[in-house]
Design brief:
The chain is mainly α and 287 residues long. Helix content is 72%, strand content 2%. α2 packs across α9. The chain is globular, with a radius of gyration of 19 Å. Belongs to the binding-protein-dependent transport system permease family. LivHM subfamily.
Length: 287
């Protein structure tokens, strides 16, 4: 049971990174970024391409790929998302949905639908003794990186002036504008940062999971459920719900395998019935 729970925490590490990026983007822009899973897939394929075509290893890809995707996300926001922002939110949803399909098909056209192999770094090829059981070193590394990144983001958002402005603009954009802060200047870097988190999760996933064009589509629906459970726009709620859902899914596979694929959505429905804003979301007043 403990080993399965640890598996859940490792799976929750990916949910937490992806949900954190989604929560920041939705909170500041009000955009449901359906292309988030596609950028997660591009992160995995970016590391594969760097290794296969240029001989660039995992450690360099871990820095380079999220940076490149973050810059691409910032450019995407400036050229397209910003132009659609004044319109109905459905337009940006349809745009990101269409973008996800385009990116998936471009990758499928080049590499097909078969999974591409990506080796684990040699330094993390062994196992780690955790006392009651041994566990692959790479999975321990993934969990540690996710905790460090989420913790670092939390410290920046709560302990620095820039972070407090971004957090205020994410959770209460209208009130932040009313206080005289130019929210617009923070939109592009925050959008790029959210995309970079998806790219980081993709690079971390490449040695663990099948690198294929549909890997993001298979994951993004669950990540949206995680964000809803944690509370739309709630940064802490998204991270906490990510790890919690990872645990629930892993233990569900162990004890109720027949419901393992739907357990997350059953939990989401129960949370919404009890608290429509999510566990950590802010309830809107009737006025």
């Amino acid at each position: 049971m403990l080993q399965q729970a640890f598996n859940g925490l490792v799976g929750g590490a990916f949910y937490a990174l992806l949900a954190l990026g989604l929560a920041v983007i939705f909170g500041m822009l009000g955009v449901v970024n359906f292309a988030h899973g596609a950028f997660y897939m591009l992160g995995a394929f970016g590391s594969y391409i760097l290794l296969d075509h240029f001989g660039v290893g995992f450690w360099a890809a871990l820095v380079t790929v999220p940076l490149v995707l973050g810059l691409a996300g910032a450019l995407l926001e400036r050229l397209f998302v910003r132009r659609l922002a004044p319109l109905d939110p459905l337009y940006n949803f349809l745009f990101t949905f269409g973008l996800a399909l385009i990116l998936q098909d471009l990758v499928k056209r080049e590499y097909g639908v078969q999974s591409q192999p990506y080796p684990r770094p040699e330094a993390l090829a062994g196992t780690v003794d955790l006392g009651l059981f041994t566990y692959p070193a790479y999975q321990v590394f993934v969990l540690a990186v996710s905790l460090v990144v989420c913790g670092a983001v939390w410290v920046v958002l709560t302990r620095t002036r820039v972070g407090m402005i971004v957090r205020a603009a994410t959770e209460r954009p209208e009130l932040t504008r009313a206080l005289g802060i130019d929210v617009g200047r923070w939109v592009t870097p925050v959008f790029g940062f959210g995309i970079a988190l998806a790219g980081l999760a993709g690079v971390l996933a490449a040695p663990m999971r099948a690198v294929n064009p549909l890997m993001g589509a298979d994951l993004i629906i669950t990540v949206f459920a995680v964000v809803v459970i944690g509370g739309l726009g709630s940064i802490f709620g998204s991270v906490a719900a990510g790890f919690a859902i990872g645990l629930v899914s892993a233990l569900g596979n162990l004890y109720v395998p027949a419901l393992s694929q739907t357990l997350v959505f059953i939990l989401m429905a129960a949370v919404l019935l009890w608290r429509p804003a999510g566990l950590f979301g802010r309830e809107e007043s009737p006025s």
